[in-house]
Design a protein that fits this description.
The protein is an alpha/beta fold. The protein has nine helices and five strands; from the N terminus they run ααβαβααβαβαβαα. A five-stranded parallel sheet has the order 2-1-3-4-5, sandwiched between helices. Helix 1 crosses helix 8 (about 165-190), helix 3 (about 50-70) packs parallel to helix 8 (about 165-190) and helix 4 crosses helix 5 (about 100-105). The protein is globular, with a radius of gyration of 17 Å.
Length: about 200
């Protein structure tokens, strides 16, 4: 299985290169924006399709439980990809293009934040959500891959990985989610938790 070991090294190198070459200023802005919304007790909404939906749901698990146990804040975070009943009802009766926008119309306020995860950045339901968010002046963070698509150009803060591979893109987005969360715990965690995240 020598070829597998070589492939492993190439995959990890590609992933590392994609992460380390992102725009540092945008990454800092995204971290600051997430922290600001948590501090102010605003709601953070997260969404994505397919593998990105799994990452969106993971945000809820990590921030509601893991983060809250270790940090001094109690974040309010909701995944728009998680309510299967609402998603299928909206998709069936209206259109799948509206599954995120329709939920946000009922749930979000101007000072909330929407984190959008999309490797292509061009999904129709992502585009509709971005247009609505911009109209209502709700800030967005976009995690994209490939050339970034519509998401990169139209979100408030763009975290773009120049990765032409869905696995690399999704892995990178997941890793960056963990980095932001653990960095906030390192800076603002409870005394008995902070040292764990010192690197």
């Amino acid at each position: 299985m020598e070829d597998l070991n070589l492939y492993l090294k190439k995959y990890v190198n590609y992933l590392s290169k994609s992460i380390l070459n992102l725009d540092n200023d945008q990454f800092k802005k995204a971290t600051k924006l997430i922290l600001d919304r948590i501090k102010k007790n605003n709601t953070i909404f997260v969404c994505g399709n397919g593998g990105s939906a799994a990452i969106a749901n993971h945000y809820v698990c990590d921030y509601i439980k893991f983060f809250r146990d270790r940090a001094i804040f109690k974040p309010k975070i909701i995944s728009l990809s998680n309510n299967l009943e609402a998603i299928t009802a909206i998709a069936n009766d209206i259109s799948y293009d509206h599954v995120f926008k329709y939920q946000v119309e009922s749930l979000a306020n101007k000072n909330d934040l929407i984190i959008i995860i999309s490797s292509s950045g061009n999904s129709k339901n992502i585009i509709k959500l971005l247009k609505f968010s911009k109209k209502k002046k709700i800030k967005t963070i976009g995690f994209s891959g490939f050339d970034g698509g519509y998401l990169k150009k139209n979100c408030t803060v763009s975290i773009h990985l120049n990765a032409k591979n869905y696995g690399i893109s999704e892995d990178g987005h997941h890793i960056l989610m963990h980095i932001i969360m653990q960095y906030i715990i390192y800076k603002y965690g409870k005394k008995n938790s902070k040292s764990i995240f010192k690197i």
